[in-house]
Amino acid sequence: MELRVKGLSCSNCTKELEQEIKKLEHGETAKLSYNSGKLTVDENVDLEKVKRILKSDGASLELPPSQEGREKINSNEQLHQHHHEHEHDDHGHDNTNDHSPDHGHDHGAAGSKRIIGLLAVSALLYAGTMITQGIMAPAFYISLYILASLLSGYSTFRRGLKNLAKFKFNIDTLMTIALAGAAAIGDWKEATLVAILFGLNELLEGMGMERARKSMEMLLQVAPKEAVRLDNGTETVVPIATLKVGDTVIVRPGEKIPSDGTVAGGKSSVNEAAITGESLPVEKAGGEPVFGGSINNEGVLQIRIDKAYEDSSLAKILHLVQEAQETKTPTELFINKFSKYYTPLIIIFAILVFLIPPLLLRGEWSKWLYQGLAVLIVGCPCALILSSPIAIVSGITRNARNGILIKGGVFLEQLGKLDTIAFDKTGTLTKGEPFVEKTVVYDEARFYSVAGAIEKASVHPLAKAVMKEIDRLGTPIGEADDIETVSGQGITATCDGKKYWLGNEKSISHLTFTEEVRSAVQSLKEDGLTLVLLADEREVLGMFGIADEIREESAGVIGELHRSGIRRTVMLTGDHRKTAEKVAIAVGVSEYHGGLLPEDKVAKVKQLAATGSVGMIGDGINDAPALASAQLGIAMGKGTDSAIETADIVLMQDHLGKLPTAIRIARRVNHIIRFNIGMALGLKLIALLLTIPGWLTLWIAILSDMGATIFVTLVSLTILIQKRS
Predict the structure, then answer these.
(1) How many whole angstroms separate alpha carbon 632 and alpha carbon 612?
(2) Do residues 525 and 578 make contact, with C-beta atoms less than 8 angstroms apart?
(3) pLDDT tier at 215 (50, 70, 90 boundaries)?
(4) If you count DSSP H runs as helices and E runs as strands, how many of each does the chain have, helices first?
(5) Residue 80 has pLDDT above 80, yes or no
(6) Among 345, 379, 527, 655, whose Cα sits 20 to 30 Å from the Cα of 142?
(7) In the chain, % of residues over pLDDT 70
């Protein structure tokens, strides 16, 4: 089962909590997600023990109503579910059964107000004490400073003391030592200011991560909860999970379509933005497919359910988007590994700052103790840890809003690094819907009639193109008998007692082409067209020149990709060279390769990967080997199962229009992560350099950490900002 956990705001402490939960009976499969705030556990696990483990680090469990009843949680405990504590990365964990009150940070609306209130009281108490300190007895103003510190930093001190008792050094421990040391040498004023600023820093940091999570949660709320099922004329409201294939549901204006299906009755326009990211409505009538999560605009629709909700495109998308939050990018993995060594190194550096000047340079012990304490505060790794995850979650969410499904942070990072993109032709740069572009007719009376008679029962794409042209002309068609398909060539059939051959040049091998026919064949080939010829026993009656229509947006997209820094765009196709050349020139790709088998496409992609970072775009079915061999597989396909399962990224619109935007967002995410890391380390380096002349103070130390943390959080959240078009 999946449960919501509040109060998680650091990846390392989340990992430690997960390990503790896994030690419980039935807890082996537990997964605790920092980015989404979700806990997945076996339903047989003891939730009371899970709650105690989470509480030890200031987090809390939000149980569904049914589980609350089963666990017999009383009203006081239900209130406590909304009370949780905000932590920093590398926080210590005391996983004993601790029932003491926990004044942690709750980043929900009510909890944030409570913390803001406490910080405001602390700040007023601090300001009042500082102003009137000269007229108060030392014992009295020291007591007020202590009270102000406890109001804003009690949970930090409590955890720090626990960790110190276990020789566990993290940011809570560092802050506790630093503040205790400052108090010991009589710097009560600065110690209190540091405690208040640290509390404010924790609040803002946690609110930033919660904002990114809530943005993702809002995206995931597009799924409808109930549906109106039609049973023998009777309407019944049922949960969507109970819908079965073949059920018929009623969807009224403004309601969401519960699952993938087909329009069985009615006519309306449908907003498919939840799936495709396209805001323009799509007209739907009888027999047309619809996606679960789409919104019916005006008419009443009867929908025949084709997939149970858990198998629908929307359910798969939402599941993959949630999973995407948990993949770690190489940058994140490096930061997490680096942070393990960062805090111990800071402690060693602080000890050296404290000892070396007095011992070797005859410095004052009290002054350099103060400098060492300030170094401990600079050692907080919060800004560094937050450099990546908020930006990654924001980037995945922003692209998902645009109908671009990215299956993980690692693929988002890779998308931003692409310099070469390989395209399949059919269905990617072209519509994958062949049409007759030219015809050459030698026998007007029989050509269209016989061709229509032979092709009307065929489901081949070229046959559909021929029939579309004949229907457009309104030519009456006859009946064909003895229809026989010849693999790789075409069809033979009998019409009005005469035998006919229809197909490519090989199918007409019983005839020798006249110069006129040979010239026409060569001309159509030079135009990059696929040929379908019709002949009887004595002569060629005519031929169709068939092309695949180029998508309207293809040329614009290719141009935009080149302008945005993609240095090579390569088209790979199985069609003959002239067809490939025609499409390549029309859309503007930098190079093309025709006549390729699937294994040839794989070889080409590997060849391209040797000189750059390659993304392969295809339909997710025929191009699966090439998609898998590229550093990044991108599938077309408006929510098809094969596309979602094959590629690393899926363009749900079934066109390339939003690909340049996705690449720009990915590059921006990568840029922001690099900027955040530089900012976090740069501010800390400047603060540490101030120790050389002995200028580093406690408030400068906390402001350098606080400023960096708030700054990287706000910069990361700007990724979510989207201009309305």
Answers:
(1) 12
(2) yes
(3) low
(4) 25, 26
(5) no
(6) 379
(7) 82
* CATH number of the 394-430+550-663 domain: 3.40.50.1000
Assigned CATH for 432-549: 3.40.1110.10
> What pLDDT digit, counting tens, does each position of 587-633 carry?
999 999 987 877 888 889 999 988 889 999 987 555 777 887 888 98
Query: Of these residues, 106, 172, 187, 424, which one is catalytic?
Result: 424
Alpha carbon 364 to chain centroid, angstroms: 55
Q: Is residue 99 helix, strand or coil?
A: coil
pLDDT at 360 over 80: yes
Q: How far is CA 184 from CA 142, 190, 352, 697, in A?
A: 12, 12, 20, 16
pLDDT tier at 645, thresholds 50, 70, 90:
low
The separation between the first and the last C-alpha atoms of the chain, rounded to the nearest angstrom, is 40
Contact of 615 with 662, CB cutoff 8 Å: no
> Strand, helix or coil at 335?
helix
With tokens 């060594």, the residue in question is 341
Tokens linked to 205: 């940091």
Active site residue 247: no
The two tokens of residue 401 are 């809003």
As a whole number, the mean pLDDT across the chain is 80
* Domain 226-311 class, CATH top level: mainly beta
Chain CA centroid to CA 507, Å:
50
Pairing of strands 649-651, 632-636: parallel
Tokens, residue 461: 């794409």
Whole-number Å distance between alpha carbons of 147 and 151: 6
Residue 153: Cβ within 10 Å count? 28
Residue 568, strand partner residues: 420
- The domain spans of the chain are 2-66, 110-220, 226-311, 394-430+550-663, 432-549
Question: Tokens standing for 216?
Answer: 């993702």
Supply the pTM of this predicted model.
0.66
pLDDT, tens digit (0-9, with 9 covering 90-100), for 570-584? 999 877 788 888 889
Fold: same for 2-66 and 432-549 = no
Q: Does domain 2-66 have CATH number 3.30.70.100?
A: yes
